[in-house]
Amino acid sequence: MFDRVAPRYDRLNRVLSLGNDLRWRERTANFARLGPGEVALDVGVGTGDLAFDLLRVSDPTSRVVGVDLSERMLDLVRARAMADPLGERFEARIADAQALPFADASFDRVVAGFTIRNFGDLDAGLREMRRVLKRGGRAVVLEFSMPPSAFVRGGYRVYLHQVMPRVAAALGGDAAAYRYLPGSVEAFPGAEALAARMRNAGFTRTEFVRLFFGTVAIHVGEVERA
């Protein structure tokens, strides 16, 4: 599915979020900013928006490794890296987020943008993110969330099920993908529940901030220092 949507992925994100996805990723990157020589892992790197935002706000000696299961997404992010001077600090690899091909304590940060609700096993994926983080490291996750307000939640469901698929279809989007999206958002744990799942995965301190009426949240999970 992600291979199919890859060519129109960025355009659809901009339109369907009313351009807000750019600001959400920028804010996520600022939570994950890297210091000298530090390295981040972007899980579900997609076309690289979050990875390159992170490189822009981080120390010029830092690096980002991006992993994804979609070959087509990886083709696009590699082409982006070749065209962008920041690409010298970026590496893309195919990998399963639930079985990351990295040693324990390999990264200073792990980031994920609109990725983890697609995990087949959310808890396994969170444990892997925790496993590859160094002591004192941090995971920063940007993900859709159902709003806590019943009023907003009702309007959001109309948007997800009625407006979004029609707009996506009008822009040449993949119909099956935009039928999948609403269900994946509604089935995903709320912000409080996700914070609890992150603690259960081994993060010693978790916090989150809701954005855009609670339809999106940034979660931060930290690993205790030695």
Q: Could you characterize what this model shows?
A:
This protein has 226 residues and is of the alpha/beta class. It has a single domain (2-146, 189-222), classed as Rossmann fold (3-Layer(aba) Sandwich), CATH 3.40.50. Helices cover 44% and strands 22% of the residues. It has 9 helices and 7 strands; from the N terminus they run αααβαβαββαβαααββ. The protein has helices at residues 2-5, 9-16, 20-31, 49-57, 71-83, 122-131, 150-170, 175-187, 191-200, and strands at 39-43, 63-68, 90-94, 107-113, 133-144, 205-211, 216-222. A 7-stranded mixed β-sheet has the order 3-2-1-4-5-7-6, sandwiched between helices. A hairpin with a 4-residue loop joins strand 6 (205-211) and strand 7. Helix 3 (20-31) crosses helix 4 (49-57) and helix 7 (150-170) packs antiparallel against helix 8. The protein is globular and about 50 Å long. The model has no long low-confidence stretch (mean pLDDT 92).
